Records
---
Amino acid sequence: MFHKYNRDHWSAGISVKRLYGYMGSFLDVDELAYRIQDDRTLVIENTQARAGVSLPVDYDSNTFPDDGDAFKGSGFGIDIGVTYQKKKKGHSSRRYTKACEQAYEDYVYQLGVSILDIGRVNYTKNAQVHTYENGVVWDNFNRVSYGSINQITRLISDRFYGDTLASLTDDKFHIGLPTTFNTQFDWHIKKRWYLASNLLIPLKFSDQQLRKPAQFVVAPRYEGRNIGFQMPFMLHEWEKVRMGFSARFYFLTVGTDKLSTFLGLGDIDGMDFYVSVKFNFLKGKCGRKIAEDCNF
């Protein structure tokens, strides 16, 4: 037996993802003070920096060895969230014998809150972490040349510490996922008109972490049975405005997130274009009834 609930309701979910990293690198600079004394002398007065690499290459020859170990890192990611939906018709106790009999019931508004991409990728294979501190006077800097990753890391280590391996401080590191606080609100204004908003705020948990840009989106849209369209307005990193547009005809949707770039508006470069195909079942109709309504 299928029981239909039209009443306001909460729902929550959690998703766990297994991740693999083909390669990874980071550069974390807390402090760097330098000056160019002349065309061949670099004076680094103070440095507090760390750099790490984990690449599918041989660091001595810069070749790609065929060792069958393509991924240098692995980890986990978690998404958690909760949604609340305010229905138009409230609670119904009607029961159904088939899931397809349950008709779609619209909402007044729905609200969602989530935290996305909690986790990290740990790089433990072919990994190097180098730490650089203090200062150095680097003569003949303009003549520096190198042919491999190990050559340049050992050269820098020798300049800082007088030892080609002294800067190598670890053989593993991690890179955090772009953890983001996400809120969504969708309001059914009237008939087939809706207004959605979305707020993305990046959260920082590590110095070595990917970052998703902060973004606030307001998107009015029209939702008909056969046609629909929306025009989102986006505030990127709290200062740059971007505009998009998409249109749906039956099951086909085409659009772009960067209409403003096509129109020559704003100062954000780049462009995109997407196409999607989606087929929906008619809710509240089963078997022969669907065929009659669709003229099969």
---
Amino acid sequence: MTDMTKRPGRPRKKRHTLLIDADILISRTAIACERAVCWDEESELWTLHVDMKEAKSLVEDSIADYMNTLGGRELILCFSDRRTFRHDLYPAYKGNRKERKPTIFGPLREWAKDTWPWACWAGLEADDVMGILSKSHSISPPKIIVSDDKDMQSIPCNLYQPMHPERGVRRITYKDARQHHLMQTLTGDSGDNYPGCPGVGPKRAEAILKEGTWREVVEAYEAKGLNEQEALLQARLAQILTPSLYDRKTAKVTLWKPRKNK
């Protein structure tokens, strides 16, 4: 991966379209603005208090910072649909996420959609929307994905992680993206609740992927008594969509397939 930023935080010429992971932005902001208030210590009456104006201001400040730092000319906020195609492939997908939504997540989300251009497509996560738009000819380059989600490293793109500004904007090459996708297929993702290949962590996955081929992934699964179809399911859960894998008119997803002899 190539670092494209000469100095972190240095303003760029305003020419980029920023594809912003709005799920993360809205959720983090809504959580940060929650305050526990004790109304009566004797009766131990507590509530959560949120200042919507504070939350709106924080979102505006974050977006202004992205636009200034990254040279944003335009932006698109990318949101997830309520249910995605991955839930149909694997009903346990994200089934471990039982925590409540932040108090103002819904209203703050709707306000953001009323304020800036946004995209949310049937059956897709924000990751997929960013992946598709980053490779789509409908938006002129250059484009930068703004997200802290590690899954975005499986898409060839220019990536900026707000929680790690010191990394600058990284160019994820096709080789980098393919390697990361195969790594995720082997290790799974505990955050998204899919297991990958049993007993395979990041170090083991690196050792398996000597040449970075699908055959190496399949052999790792077979060594655990599993088959290629089970490896393929994990790969499809890990794969972030690109324009060739989604028809916006019909909302139909084309499931990922490995290249022959790769």
